[in-house]
Amino acid sequence: MELFALDLGNIQTKIKSSKLEKVLPSKFAYYEDLGNQDTSIKKSKRDIKEYSVNYDNDFSYAWGADINDAKKVDLIDTIGFENRYSTTEFRLLSSFAIGELAKDFQEAKNGILEVDIVTGVPTNDFNEKAVKTLIKVLKADHNVVVDGVSLNVRVNEVKVIPQPIGTVYNKMLDDQGYIVEDDFDEETISVVDCGGGTILIDTLNNMNLDETGRSQEKEGAHHLYDSIISECSKENITLTKNDIEKILREQKDRYYFAPNKDESIEITKEVNRSITKYTRQLTNKVTSTLKDTSQIDTLFFTGGGANLINKKEVTKRFKRAIFIEKSETANVNGYYKYGLATAESDHDD
After folding, report:
1. Residue 335 in contact with residue 302, Cβ under 8 Å?
2. How many whole angstroms separate alpha carbon 264 and alpha carbon 256?
3. What is the pLDDT of residues 76-87, one digit of tens each?
4. C-alpha angle 80/166/25, rounded to 5°?
5. Residue 336 has pLDDT above 90, yes or no
6. pLDDT digits (tens, 9 = 90+) for 177-228
7. What is the pTM of this model?
8. Domain 183-325 architecture
9. d(CA 347, CA 60)
10. Do residues 159 and 345 touch, judged by C-beta distance below 8 A?
11. Which end of the chain is more exposed for a tag (fewer CB within 10 A), N or C?
């Protein structure tokens, strides 16, 4: 039995198995819209694969780490705030993620690979209806064809936990799923999860979710991208969200937009102004949600968006703020460790 961990975020998808850990955009395209790939001598160097699934035989899809670089292609977005788990786009993304992990296992090619999955949802979605819908999507027999290779996966069990707890488990457990931070059971811990679509603020007392001291906002990193686009438009610089995402991922301290190979336009002032404003809005939300941060033992900032905010502004406001290393993958690693830990305890029982 193999263990897969999935963090199917609005902007980025994070996946992990015993053989692979990867971050990919949560968007894809119809493969036919890429055009004729035979003319490109660099095709093998681009991380874009062709996927098809057994329940959608009429189409094949393009997905991979470099899908945002595809020129003049309408990308299919999976961002959503209501009933996201019941959409066709989310179901397809889930299948692609399972197939991407399964391709490293020979059993998926020769027979049926049996797996358990651990995933997480925003705390507001941690309810019977949403969890049942998500489990129905994942707990099934999946046939996914990746670049012509047919893969068969049977998902036997799906464990769903509140998303921000993934970061806490990542800190609490080692790579084998054993506890290395005993103090967390005695602490009040708040987690600020800055995702692509949402900002999640949650509090745990003795590792139990507190119904107070929590909030879910729709102003994730996409809101910062919109702000930068607006600032740049004042200078007659036109960018897309894909442009901004790529610039923020690949550049640091000074930011430039290259509309073509001969031009480079500096947008550092516009980016920094938007980041400062976004950070101050975030710290205000944290303060209004937690009320008295002096009662918090540990305040974690995690998620891909935690890499984008002004850390000096945050630590000036919150003295016990801790920025998680590799925050973008902290949740999916926590899911995986939780899966190992609970598998061990299930075995002991």
Report:
1. no
2. 6
3. 999 876 789 999
4. 40
5. yes
6. 999 988 888 999 999 999 988 899 999 998 998 888 899 988 899 999 999 9
7. 0.91
8. 2-Layer Sandwich (3.30)
9. 40
10. no
11. C
Q: Per the structure block, which two tokens stand in for 122?
A: 């925003």
Give the C-alpha separation, 38 to 25, whole Å.
24
Residue for token digits 């305890």?
345
The boundaries of every CATH 3.30.420.40 domain in the chain are 2-162, 183-325
Element (H, E) at 311: helix 311-317
Whole-Å CA distances, 156 to 130, 140, 162, 342 = 19, 8, 20, 15
Q: What is the residue whose two structure tokens read 């509140």? A: 162
For tokens 């729709």, the residue is 218
Q: Which CATH class is domain 2-162?
A: alpha beta
pLDDT, residue 158, reads 98
Residue bearing tokens 């906002």: 217
* pLDDT above 90 coverage of the chain, percent: 79
Record the tokens describing residue 13, joined without a space.
Answer: 């998808």
Q: Two tokens at 265?
A: 């336009």
